[in-house]
Amino acid sequence: MTMHDSNQASSGVVGEGGGLDRAALDHTVFSLVPRAELEAEGPRILTAGSGARVSDHKGRTILDMLSATTRANSLGYGNAEIGAAMARQAEVMQYSGSGRFLSEPAVRLSEKLAQLAPGRLNRTVFVSGGSEATETALKLARQYQRESGRKPRAYKVISRWNAYHGSTLGALSVTDWLGIRDIPDPRAPGHSFVANPMRLRNPYGLGEDEYEDICVAHLERQILHEGPDLVAAFIGEPIMQANGAQVPSRSYWQRVREVCSRYGVLLVADEVISGFGRTGHWFACEYFGIEPDIMTMAKAMSAGFAPIGAVMTRDEIADALPIFRHVHTFAGHAVACAAASKVIEIKERDGLVERARRLGDDFAAMLREAVGDLLIVGQVRGLGFWQAVDFCRDRETGAPFADDTVPAIAAAMLDQGVLAGAIGTAIEFAPPLVTTQEQLAECARALVNAIEKVSREKELKL
Prior knowledge:
Mean pLDDT: 93
Number of domains: 2
Oligomer: single chain
Structural class: alpha/beta
Helix content: 40-55%
Shape: globular
Number of helices: 16
Distance between the termini: 54 Å
Radius of gyration: 22 Å
């Protein structure tokens, strides 16, 4: 079939987007978007942006309250400083290879990360994104347990229900969210899951504190069940994304830290979403007062300007390995590292991490005042610039909606020009750190309007 024939055969919607609509439908795979939805509504193609606003190929301007859906665009769009830093580095040397050689920007960045990271985390392995970071962390944990002689046979990794750690095979093996794990089954062996702390509702109908006790006990029991000498690591997101910004108590993470230390299990903190200011702290581990053995990061590390991720660990873990048997082609890419260094510089210079903490509290208060008393709102929760509104069809029991109510609210917000995320039972907000207080208020108003619209259509009591 010729390209002309292919275009004629397309059944997609071709409206204001013209050729871009058709090309996207005919030649591009949209992950996680059903084909029927694409053909009915047309593709979404972003073309330009400035600050917290972005434009699509049909000329519509959108207030992005989700940092480009993946929460990576932590400085919004169109930052000329970062673009210039990348261009300067590309002119000098764009790529140094990986493994045997490192670029100067990678070395400088690793030095800066050592200053920012919690506790004794001091050594960095660079990768290209979050899934690669998870893969690297798990390999590092297993190789350390063997090379150090502490647990020569340890290969097992424990994760949690509703966890998300990436979409490559190793990362999928510790993932239990988004439905991306189902078709690739069976996954790699040696992985198991324990209960995760949840706000508003949990599988046993317990109070939040009582359920957290169960979660910690479950972890210890699982380590004993799997055999402590065979368990290399436990991996967890400090704040889980499943059903929107699940912030556990400080006590939960401190007790998890104690259990892992007791059995020589390395604690891997997945800061891919929560790192680099999202929670009003450089890393969420600071909020919880814990030092992980290994920490992963990506996304906001470069504010979405270049694919980059990293894994950090302590000196004694890195030094136990005579050689780290691991490589990624674009690990420590010079231009990506230059972008990340400039992002950190801007966030420090402009006080954006502290600002996210302060305005995050204001935003949470706006959301609670706007919708907190509505009968279909079960909870407003979050930390810093990561907030969520969890919905329920029965406020007394916290039972969630089983239909499309939550996605419909997100869609109604987008109709008003505000991008938010439907994530399970909740609507999630993760705005760029440069978002203004006026834009946060605009988002809160759009949420109220969207809830009222969907409630009228579905005859829901507010």
